[in-house]
Design goal:
With 124 residues, this protein is an all-alpha fold. Helix content is 71%, strand content 0%. It has one domain.
């Protein structure tokens, strides 16, 4: 058996989706709602036109959802990084009188950051 593969160049006409979002309920609901909207607006369109409109709508909804998700992710990562820096400075300024609350909070923040970084490794 011989399998021939063709590599295609990516460009503005190509669309690549992060498959992991397909299982997210929030994403599924947004896509369903977008499809309902476009179908209601174009209920008199022929089947081929409606299919193309739905595909474009799914593409747009997917891009928007991925962008918003990434933005939230980056914001959370930035906030955690700042929190870790602040807690480390607070711990340094405690001059050996290590406050157990600071240490606990720092450990929790580091654990959350580790989880974020592990998620990034799985997705990207």
């Amino acid at each position: 058996m011989v399998i021939k593969t063709v590599s295609t160049k990516r460009g503005p006409w190509s669309f690549k989706i992060n498959n992991s979002i397909l299982l997210e309920t929030e994403y599924q609901e947004k896509v369903k709602e977008a499809i309902r909207e476009i179908s209601n607006i174009n209920k008199d369109a022929n089947a081929n036109t409606l299919l193309e409109l739905i595909k474009g709508t799914i593409r747009n909804a997917s891009i928007k959802y991925s962008f918003e998700k990434r933005k939230k992710h980056n914001t959370r990562k930035y906030e955690l990084s700042n929190k870790i820096d602040k807690l480390q400075k607070d711990l340094e300024h405690s001059h050996g009188n290590s406050d157990i609350n600071i240490v606990t909070e720092l450990d929790n923040a580091k654990q959350q950051m580790t989880e974020i970084l592990e998620t990034e490794l799985k997705v990207y």
